[in-house]
Amino acid sequence: MSTYxxxxxxxxxxxxxxxxxxSNLKLIEDFLGIPIFACGNELSVEEEDGDAVRRFRxxxxxxxxxxxxxxxxxxxxxxxxxxxxxxxxxxxxIGADDHAFxxxxxxxxxxxxxxxxxxxxxxxxxxxxxxxxxxxxxEGPAGSGKTFLCIxxxxxxxxxxxxxGIVLTRPVVEAGESLGYLPxxxxxxxxxxxxxxxxxxxSILPRExxxxxxxxxxxxxxxxxxxxxxxxxxxxxxxxxxQNTTKEQMKMFLTRLGEGSKAFITxxxxxxxxxxxxxxxxxxxxxxxxxxxxxxxQHLDSEDVVRNPLVxxxxxxxxxxxxxxx
Length: 326
Prior knowledge:
Elements: E1 3-7, H1 11-18, H2 23-32, E2 37-39, E3 42-46, H3 50-68, H4 76-85, H5 99-104, H6 121-132, E4 135-139, H7 146-159, E5 165-169, H8 186-202, H9 207-215, E6 219-221, E7 235-239, H10 247-254, E8 262-267, H11 281-289, E9 295-299, H12 309-319
Parallel strand pairs: 4-8, 4-9, 5-6, 5-7, 7-8
Antiparallel strand pairs: 1-3, 2-3
């Protein structure tokens, strides 16, 4: 019988995993069907079955991942139950045969506080697509992890020296693409729009590391309207909130891609803020680009939402036809 051990250096995180009188740990044991031994700051299983060990590692790493993100809206028991429920095959999520695929598509960012594990098949497929294609479109609801995973993969590519920079851009719909009315310099004008992107970075890397990369020009923020005429080479370009681009803006963005670059495009077609008469550039691009080699499109849905469980229920409610009963 071989022993596999996970060291949890953070005693507070270990306490949250174990729970009062090891109640949480017992819940995990019942789910995995194998005993877990806690000693000091270590969690161990004695098991010959490689799949059982992979499931154990995946569950504990997923819980640590959520704790590291500062998930506060859920109690520890609800958090653990949410992660375990996400792995039930009947829920259309992670089954026993999927763990190798999920582990292969975890994102390890140099210098990061943790590895990032996909929580659903859709998220794992998105990571796989980003590694195989130069242009990836991730369309799905809020909380489905699309922007977060794109940011993590971009940081990995930058910090493993496979790319020379990251360029972040969003359409500034609320200001009509005219930033002159906002106070401050360009960076200060853009800050309200790019803050979610930097929040994602700061949840993975120390803030001072992100600040140094930004000051050194490795991470650049640019309004979409200012990208015309540029050719971006050896960079990861992330277009967030792409549902608010026009067809012309999307075409302009896609043609900025230079040699050795990748483009990650994220958006939610249920939250288009454009005037009704204007077609979303994201919707138009998905129709035009489907089936082109080197371009991948991943549709996420409410089953990929990993925020507070209420968010998933809210999204499902809004997906129903207006005449349906809530």
